[in-house]
Amino acid sequence: MFKKALGILLGILLLVFIIVGVFIGLNYHPDMDLAELKEKYSLDSSRFMVIKDMPVHYSLEGKGEKYLLLIHGTGSSLHTWNAWVEEMKEDYRIIRLDLPGFGLTGPNPKKRYDRIFYSIFLETFVDKLGLDKFHLAGNSFGGYIAWNYALNHPNKIDRMILLNSSGYPIENKTTPLGFRLAKDETIGPWLQNITPRSLVKKTVCAAYEDDALATESTVDRYFEFLLREGNREAFTLKMQHIKHDNSEKIKHIQPPTLIMWGDKDEVVPPKHAYRFHKDIKHSEFIMYENIGHLPMEEIPERSAKDALEFLNTSVALSN
């Protein structure tokens, strides 16, 4: 009886090892060559600026007297703003960039990804561009960086737009699976080599209300940027280092702010939109029905039109 039970146990363990081995074999992905990624994802307007030994990828497009700086969210890239640039480039000179840890910019050599690091980075980026006064917009984590910058430099920001911005503590149950796994200090390191494309697709789909928007080419872009050398480690470290420990200061934001949100957001709860609107004295608020975490991608024409209307208004806001 004992030998039979032992044999069954060993058989089960062998089966588990085989399954794990197959899973690892299918989902192990080496880093992608940076030259290949640049060839595939650089824009005609792409530029690179070296900041603290990082080759920061950014783009400058459009025309007009005023500048608009766009900041993407976690796991994304400057490509998330493609449609907005097309809609707004006749009105503004538009700057967008790949943040450290993402896109073609790649990892921070110091492996630091907390709020203070990103605040100092953005200050340096803006100073190197020579921007004195500009509009600022950010989505998700990009919104977090944007409003923290606005707190420290209120006189440099003309108007600000926050699209589904992070800022307040979020319950884990509302966070996409890929983000939760990366945040786990035990599982996160495994994702630096074992990176299921299916997990990336599931996480991308969670950002849209309409899964059809998560096309194969879109998922490929997210997945392949993640495979840029150092980006997987940066992603897990960023998820573990970022703490929403500054939300009590949101009520001190001075620049007029437009809050744009999708009511079906599964990444940052829509209830946070109302908190931003309540805490920011000079703010306007738009809630889009049946839209998820990325209004600038899901309804680009409508959201860009609303953004332009706000940016072109010179009258001060009030709650």
Mind explaining what this structure looks like?
The chain is an alpha/beta fold. It has two domains: 1-28; 34-311, Rossmann fold (3-Layer(aba) Sandwich), CATH 3.40.50.1820. 42% of the residues lie in helices and 16% in strands. It has twelve helices and eight strands. It has helices at 2-27, 34-41, 82-88, 115-129, 141-152, 177-183, 197-207, 216-226, 231-241, 271-279, 295-298, 300-311, and strands at 46-51, 54-62, 67-71, 93-97, 134-139, 157-163, 257-262, 283-288. The chain has an eight-stranded mixed β-sheet with strand order 1-2-4-3-5-6-7-8, with helices on both faces. Helix 3 (82-88) packs across helix 12, helix 6 (177-183) crosses helix 9 (231-241) and helix 7 (197-207) crosses helix 8 (216-226). Residues 13-26 have low confidence and may be disordered.
Poorly predicted segments: 13-26
CATH class of the largest domain: Alpha Beta
Overall shape: globular
Q: Count helical runs.
A: 12
CATH homolog superfamily of the largest domain: Alpha/Beta hydrolase fold, catalytic domain
Largest sheet: 8 strands, mixed
Strand numbers in spatial order across the main sheet: 1-2-4-3-5-6-7-8
Task: Supply Rg.
Answer: 21 Å
